[in-house]
């Protein structure tokens, strides 16, 4: 069984530029999560989807971050414009009905 | 909301020794406590979890214990091997559905010396 797929694995951009991350969850998993992991810290939730509905986006900085999961399968997280403080690893995870979460490899974002 | 504290932040052991990582949580409603292992450049990997109706769970060389009264849980790794070297994260939440989100500790960097 394939795991959670994320792309790209690495991204370097200049501040004020836009960036997008893509995630494909484990087949059949209806719950999808986006996390941000700063260096030396644990992951912190940005947004959680149940199918195509965002059920918790309270930690998503909505002035510059957006996310979508149009068909309830894969998802895209966007930052526009990026700031220096957005440098981090962006992790996607999925689960079946909110149970055990399985993480993808992450996208390491560097904003210069 | 939930707050998870994890100790120690770094741990160095000799190969073959045991390693113990401890976490405390604040929300008495939390009932699900997973542990993740994260190797350099990879995403967190679920290695073991425990639910609040169980006091201890084992899987080969790893075990997790839970003390609901004291609100703390621990990861035990026996007969450590160099490949156990990684960052370990504990987490807590209300299990299942939309009841809650995983709150992670800050991680423990485990180094196993050959």
Radius of gyration of chain B: 14 Å
Give the oligomer, counting copies of the same chain as homo and different chains as hetero. heterodimer
Query: Strand-residue fraction of chain A?
Result: over 45%
Number of helices, where a helix is a run of at least 4 consecutive DSSP H or I residues of chain B: 0
**What pattern of helices and strands is seen along the backbone of chain B?**
EEEEEEEEEEE
Name the helix and strand elements of chain A from N-terminus to C-terminus, one letter apiece.
EEEEEEEEEEE
Shape of chain A: globular
Query: Residue-averaged pLDDT of chain B, rounded?
Result: 93
Report the count of strand segments of chain B. 11
pLDDT under 50 segments of chain A (min length 5)?
A: none
- Report Rg of chain A: 13 Å
Q: Report on the biggest sheet of chain B.
A: 6 strands, mixed
What do you see in this structure?
The complex is a heterodimer of chains A (112) and B (114). With 112 residues, chain A is mainly β. Chain A has no helices and eleven strands. In chain A, the strands form two sheets. In chain A, strands 2, 4, 5, 6, 9, 10 and 11 form a seven-stranded mixed beta sheet that branches. The model of chain A has no long low-confidence stretch (mean pLDDT 94). Chain B has strands at residues 4-7, 10-14, 19-25, 32-38, 45-51, 56-59, 62-67, 72-77, 86-92, 103-104, 108-113. In chain B, strands 2, 4, 5, 9, 10 and 11 form a six-stranded mixed beta sheet that branches. In chain B, strands 1-3-8-7-6 form a five-stranded antiparallel beta sheet, with no helix packed on it. Chain B is globular and about 40 Å long. The A-B interface holds A 4, 33, 40-45, 48, 50, 55-56, 91, 93, 97-106 and B 34, 36, 41-46, 49, 89, 91, 95-99, 101-102, 104-107.
């Amino acid at each position: 069984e394939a795991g959670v797929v994320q792309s790209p694995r690495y991204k370097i951009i200049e501040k004020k530029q836009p960036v997008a991350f893509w995630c494909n969850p484990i087949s059949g998993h209806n719950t999808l999560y986006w996390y941000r992991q700063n260096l030396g810290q644990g992951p912190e939730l940005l947004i959680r989807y149940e199918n195509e509905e965002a059920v918790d986006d309270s930690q998503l900085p909505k002035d510059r971050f957006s996310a979508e999961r149009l068909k309830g399968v894969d998802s895209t997280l966007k930052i526009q414009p990026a700031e220096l403080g957005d440098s981090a690893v962006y992790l996607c995870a999925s689960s079946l009905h909110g149970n055990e979460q399985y993480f993808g490899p992450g996208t390491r974002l560097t904003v210069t | 909301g939930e707050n998870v504290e994890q100790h120690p932040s770094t741990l160095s052991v000799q190969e073959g020794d045991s390693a113990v990582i401890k976490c405390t949580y604040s929300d008495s409603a939390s009932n699900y406590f997973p542990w993740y292992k994260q190797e350099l450049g990879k995403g967190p990997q679920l290695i073991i979890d425990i639910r609040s109706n169980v006091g201890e769970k084992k899987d080969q060389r790893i075990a997790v214990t839970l003390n609901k009264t004291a609100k703390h849980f621990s990861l035990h790794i026996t007969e450590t091997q160099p490949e156990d070297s990684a960052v370990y994260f504990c987490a807590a939440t209300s299990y299942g559905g939309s009841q809650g989100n995983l709150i992670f500790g800050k991680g423990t960097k485990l180094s196993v010396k050959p």
